[in-house]
Structures are given as structure tokens and as C-alpha cells.
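Reference record:
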Amino acid sequence: MTTYDDRASLTDLTTTADRVRRSVEGVIEGKPEVVRLSLTVLLAEGHLLIEDVPGVGKTMLAKALARSIDCSVRRIQFTPDLLPSDITGVSVFDQQERDFEFKPGAIFAQIVIGDEINRASPKTQSALLESMEERQVTVDGRTYELPSPFMVVATQNPLEMEGTYPLPEAQRDRFMARVSIGYPSAEAELQMLDVHGGASPLDDLQPVAHAHDILKLIDAVRRVHVAEPVRRYAVELVSATRQHPDIRLGASPRATLHLLRAAKATAALAGREYALPDDVRALVVQVLAHRLLPTAQAQLNRRTAEQVLLEILQRTPVPTAQGPAAVRHPGARRP
């Protein structure tokens, strides 16, 4: 049972999260919103998909986040010849013990960096499904628990690049959020030349938080209150994707859960004990866009999932009629 002394307050959460954020921003210049989303996904117990063209810092962001936390880290370079057993592990016969011994794969770490995940075949990609959803691995009929906290940070090149495979729908649905880093501004790129010109800033990056700190912060996020109007608002947004004429595959119930968890983490990072509709609105595109499949006609008309979601946000009423008291926990302090 968790005692009061073991639980992190919102002050502890914001202080620790701010240390991690500053640490990562020392490596990734000019992208504070991307770093903040990475922290949000970590505290919401999700997984992050970073999609962009080569050379903009996708792997650097994943490594900086991993090194800023004192926990076990594994990196998997996805290639066409990578096997599922390289990820999950394999049972090897021990001649001395006359029995099979399980050799854990690269997935047995607290933060797993999957570099260029869509360069491996769909068969290999599917090896992540069980671990990302159930935080366990089953090999030869035996189930092995993964360490906690557990987060997969995967990078992906756009599908138009040569030698890439599209992620299956079930795989994309496991990722809580997708983010694109984008090209830096001229000022940020100049600063990058100064910082990265001599040596990699990752070499001097030291952990600023421990794994047990992150577990306590995750517990604090779980305790954030979400009122019924905010929950209903999230459901209405997700339901609208299933009924839109330009979408042939809408967001799943798992997407609704991920949206709500991310909203709670956003509220906690803002120092609030309750989530607001604005917390949900701010994450709709990042949490839902990569799960949607536009129709063939929408693709011909160059309609993207992001455009559809912005349209849904404009059409869906925001629950504000009952005032702030409707979304605040009865025992929460006023900001």
C-alpha cells in the first residue's frame, strides 16, 4: 500500500519535471513544446512516436530523455533483418543445467529507444505489441514482467522514404502520441552549431531524476481529478472521428483513454489537481492524428487527419456553461 510519505505532491512533480525538461532542452534547442510533450507521455505511462525527416534530432531527443533519468536504457536499431527474438528474447538450452534458460531481449529496459522503427518488417514490429500494451513479454508459453516505469520512444522516417514499411494500425494505436520535431529556427540552428560543433552534449548529460522519482510522479498524475463534463468532452471528440465522412478508420477506445491520461499529466505539469477541457483540446492532434485513416477521396483532396481534427475541435462544444467549479475536484485548492 502506498503511504502518504511515498506519494509525490504536485510541487514535487513540477520541480522534478522542470529539471528533466531543462536537461533535455540543453540538447534539443528551440523545441520546448516537443520536450514538454515527451514529459507528458512519460508521466501518463504512454509511449512516444517521433516522426520526421532524417537529421532533425529524433534519436537525440529520445537519448536525451533517457539519459536525464537514472534508469535502464536500451537502444534497438530497427533494420530489415532484425528478428522478433532480438527484441523479446529467446530460450537457449543450457548444457550444464540440462534445461532451457531465457535470455532477455532488448525490450527488457525501463526506457527503450526504437530507432527507425519502420525500417523493420511488420513481423518484427509486432514483437512490440504485447510489451507496449501489457508491459510483459511471453516467450515459449512463459510470461516475463517488464521493469517499471516502462516507456518506448520510437523514431520513424516518413513513409515516402526508401526502405520503410508502414506501421500496422495496431502498432500505431499503442503509441500515446506522435510528434514531429521539424526544422529549427535560424537562431536555434546557430546555437546548435556552437553547442554541438565540438562534441556531443549527450556526453556530459547527467541524470537529474531517478526511476523511483518517476514512479511517484506517475502516481501523482493518476490522482488528478477529471470531472464528468471533461470526460464526456473527450468521448465526444473521439466519437466524432468515427463518424466523419473523410475518415474510414476512427480513433479507438484506447485513444480515448490515452487522451484522458495525457490531459491529466498536462494538468499536473501545470500544477493543477484537476483537468480542464483545454488540457484535452491541446492534445487532440498529437494523440489522435496518427491513429486515423483518411478515405481515398480525402487523400485525393489532400485532406489530412490533422485538418479533420481541427475541424472537429471547432464543431464540438466546449463544456464551459457550468463554470470552472464543474471541472474542479471538490477538495482541490483554487489556483
Q: What stands out?
A: The first helix runs from residue 10 to 25. The first strand starts at residue 48 and ends at 51. Confidence is low (pLDDT under 50) at residues 1-6. Residues 42 and 268 are 13 Å apart (CA to CA).
